[in-house]
Here is the input.
Amino acid sequence: MRNTENSNLRADTRYRVHSGKIPGRIYAADKAVQLQATSFDISKSGLGLVVDEMLAPGERIWLITDQVGVKFEVRHCGPKSGVSGFLCGLALIDSSEAIDDLFAAAGIF
Here is the structure.
C-alpha cells in the first residue's frame, strides 16, 4: 500500500540534484568524529548524502557551518549499487535555516 501522506509531501518539495561539496562538516550527534560525506540532493527540508559509514534511521546528524549548526534526523540509509559508501536521506529538524539557501550562500550552486 502506498503511503500517500509521504507522497504528497515529496510532491510538494522541490529538490536540487547535486553531487559534491557540503558547506560545512557533518557529525553524528552521539559521536565526536566527523563523517566523510558528499551531497547528492538538497531541498528546503532535507539533504541526501553519501557517507562513509552506515547510519541508523532516527539517528541525529549535525551540519556545522561557519555561521550555524543545523540538525537532521536520518530517515533512511543503506548501500546502493554503483555508489562507494552509504546513501542516506536526512530530514531537517530544529532549524529555521533552509538547506538550499546554506548551499547557495556558500557558492556551491
About this structure: The helical segments are 4-12, 99-105. The radius of gyration is 13 Å.
